[in-house]
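Issue 218. Parser rejects a valid record. Input:
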Amino acid sequence: AVTGVQTCAEKGLAYEGTNCCDEDETPTPDNDSNSGSCIVCSDTPSSWMTKNGHTCATWKGLKSKCGPNGQTPSFIQNKFCQQSCYDRFDPPIAYVDGDGNEEICCET
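Output the parser choked on:
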């Protein structure tokens, strides 16, 4: 487990319950969301993005799908661009597993 994990709310950021690691710590991949450790997240674009030649890492429309001021529930529920959404926005958007546990992506 990673020590020093706290919620973004505790750090003064917008989303209560979103776990953040301290900047000087490197999380270890772990598939147990309850442990506070990170998981290796996918970065799969939606079918519309693929058809239109967009990738998660470079698409400028990502902010409207998973950014702090524009979130599309179906985009989040389908876990499209999960790693890019986690990496690009602070605080990161909370994706959850089938049991409702927040998934913390490892830094890439």
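Fixed in the parser; the record now loads. Confidence is low (pLDDT under 50) at residues 1-35.
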